[in-house]
Structures are given as C-alpha cells and as structure tokens.
Amino acid sequence: MANRRIEKGSTSYPPPRLTASRNYVGAKAKEILATHDITGIKKLVTILCHAKETEQETEHLYKTFAHHFPNILAVKLLKLYMSTNDATTNPKIRSFSLSLLASLLNDLDYSGAGLKTESLKSIKTHLNTCLYELESSDEDFGIISRIVSHVAVDVFIENHPWDELCSYIFSLDGNKRALLMFSELPTLLDEEFLMPLLDNGLSSKIFKALDCVDEEEWLVGLVAGFSLMLQLVTLKKESLVKDLFYAILNSVWEMVNVKKREIVVRKGLLKIARKVGREALRFREPEYEAVADWVKMIQKISGVSKITKKVVKMVQELLDNLSNCVFVSVSERQVLVLWKQCTYRFCFFCGLFMLVWMHSLILVLPFHYNEVGVEYIIMDKF
C-alpha cells in the first residue's frame, strides 16, 4: 500500500497547468486586460510571435483569454497594432497582433457569438483611426480588410451606420485596395451604404480591373465584381447586374482563350468559392439564383479545362447544400440574434439561481463572474 502511494505521487503524474488556476487567470486578466497600458499584451503577443515549445503556458493563457474575454482581447490587440509611436514595438509584433485579431474574430463568427455592443463601438472607432491615420503594408492591409469584414457583419446586422468606411473606400487612390476592401465586405450592405460607392465610380474601377494586365489587380476585380453583383441583386439594379455578369464572363473567356492565363482564373474562382462559403448562410433566394446562374454560365465558357470546372463545381456544391435551407432576410436575422441573446441571458440567470440553491455558489461564482461580468466592467475603462 505504501508503495502504491509513492507511485501516485511520482513524476508520472504531471502537475496541473498554472493557467488552469482561476486565481492565476484572474490576476493575469487584471494585469494585462484591465488596464489602458499595452505593455502586458505586448509581452504576451511577443512571446506568441516567437513561439517555442517551452512557452506552452503563455499559449494556454492566451487561449483562455480568447475563450473568456474575447471582446476585451480584441480591443487590446487592435490597440497594440495602433502603437506606432512606441519605438519599442517591433513592426513584426504589430502585424502579428493583427493576425491574432483576425483569427479571434473569425472564431467569434464561427461560434455565432459576435461582438458585444460595448466592444463593437470601441473596435469600430479604432478601425476608423487605423484606416485614415496609419500607413500599412499590403500584407497588413489585407488582414485589416478581413477584420473590417468581421466587424461589419455585427455593425450592419444591428443597423448601425458606417459612413467612415464608405468614405474611406472611395477615397482610396488606385483600384487594388479599394476593390480589396469592398470585396471582403459581407452581403449585408444597404442602399444607403452602397449608392455613394457606385456614385463615386466603384463599378468603373471593377470594369477597369477586369481589363487589367496585372494579375493581382485582375483577381481583386473579379472577386469585387462578383461581390457587387450579389449586393445589387437584392437592390433590384437589374441593368448593372447584367453588365457585371457579362463583364466577368467575357473577362474569364479572354483570360482563358486569349491571354492563356487559366491558372489565374482558377485562383480567382477559388477566392469566389471561399467568398460563397462565408456568405452562403446569409443568402436569400435572389442571391442563390444569381450565383447558380453565374456558375452555369462559367461552366459553358469554351476552352475551360476540367480542372477549372471542378473548382466551379465547388461553388455549386456549396449552393446544393443550401437547397433545403430557409432563406432569411436581414430583419429576420436580427430577430434571431436578439432571441439568441435573450435566451443566453435567461439561461445564465436560471443557472446562477440553481447554483445558489445547490449551495455551490462559493466554488463556482468567481469563475462565472470572470467569464461574464468582468468584461462589462473592464469595457467601461476603454
């Protein structure tokens, strides 16, 4: 019996992670997140950027923050990117903070949680500053565009205006960045947001890009043209939809048969497949029918190889998976979001009441408080 006790206490049973301690996580959250200073988050991100196997505790701490405090963490990561006046902040660390933020927002979208109203306002304000006041590399701009896309979903679902974003897009010089930013936006834009873009030459930039020799600009023009086509379908702009529809088809035909750049076409179709994959659940019948018709016409283009047709088929398969789904409008989606939020709060308070009734409040409440309550308190400081 004595020997068995010794074996149980041996090193074959590793000690629990330090980050598994609620007190440790709470202390670190207060040190890193509940402060205006970015020193703590910069140290955390720096260690993650230079990831080593020996830094598993840091990685686990970050994942814990991302799980329990995603809204505050999102604000802190964006503030770290904005710290251009801090000479001690390496540009590589700033760029890495953007990548972490994009990944965090993607996980929130995937989980259906979305951003809370308090952090949404803060992130939107900081993003406006990033767009208008900070210079960014092409790589960073691509990540910022994806971040804007994630934030825009919550902004437009809640019917908040984003005039600054609209003004920024048509103020950009050249086609590439303006079209890239637009192509990343969700298919939730209303006429009030979209019409100023059209009045300031968005469609002309797309037509010009589709006729461009530069491959990267052509790719951006292809996805932007496809995105605008989807946006215009619901606004019943049939004439411009047809113009875009045939401009894309003619451009694809020319790239395949005249310029012999079918590989570039394939890249563009893969980007469109990813776009449809992100947006498909938001499609209503008009968008679904427009994409289905577009797929059929692409498949009929002469000279397109079997490999390219397989890429097009990916888009069709995404649509087929939706064939039995119910298409909901934006207003109906808002009801679903509100219902989900109310259900979550109701379940939380019911669960809290049951915990009190079961006399386990002392053990469990501190952790629940960290999960839910602390975020609202900390957000008041930003």
TrEMBL record:
- Matches recorded under InterPro entries: DUF577
Q: Which residues cross the membrane?
A: 346-369
User: DUF577 domain: from which residue to which, for each copy?
Assistant: 120-284
Q: Which UniProt keywords apply?
A: Membrane, Transmembrane, Transmembrane helix
Q: Does the keyword Membrane apply?
A: yes
Q: Which domain of life is it from?
A: Eukaryota
Q: Does the keyword Transmembrane apply?
A: yes
* Name assigned to this protein: DUF577 domain-containing protein
According to its UniProt entry, this protein's organism is: Capsella rubella
